[in-house]
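Check out a protein:
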Amino acid sequence: MKKRTRLAWVYFIAVVLLAGIYIFGNLIPELENYSRAAISYYGSSGKEVIEIQKRLKAWGYYHGAIDGKYGYLTYQAVRYFQSKNGLKVDGIAGKQTLYALGLPTGSSSNPNDQHLELLARCIYGEARGEPYEGQVAIAAVVLNRVADSRFPNTIPGVIYQPGAFTAVSDGQINLTPNDTAYKAARDALNGWDPTYGCIYYYNPATATSKWIWSRPIVVKIGRHNFCK
């Protein structure tokens, strides 16, 4: 009887060990995914920190070395970037901050949905009240900049580039877009460009930059002049 009991316990322990190995083996990919999606913060290091430093340095927020170490200068640069772009100012490069920098966020959501959302917010912040064609045109300018080597090569990078859009500077980028803004964003993403390739626009009634006035106007839509 004792022998049977011992065998039963051996069998039970073996089953538990095998189950543990199976569970842990399936958990490893999940842990790897979590690691890849991990946010960066003070004390972090690695490739993601390097990319954060590169973006912040290119845009004038960071003045330290590109060393992949999330030290005080990187922390301060992230906070500065967050404060200028309507993000939570905590010095942590979380998903929203990474997205604003144009970097992978590890999110399972479709990047195209994220681009649509940000583009719609830019349209709503910059051009609500403009003719529908004019709202599509704003989004087209963003996309034209993405394709132009003189600008960041992502939608978040273009929109959050320092001083590029008034809606970012004054916080209107954080307003909830209406259906028209989403529709205009979709039309632009699907290829409609009422500006014929323009990468700049301005309102002549409010523009103060002498340089922008020197740009050749391609088309006027609503209150905006679009130029190259």
The beta strands are 200-202, 217-221, 224-227. The longest strand covers residues 217-221.
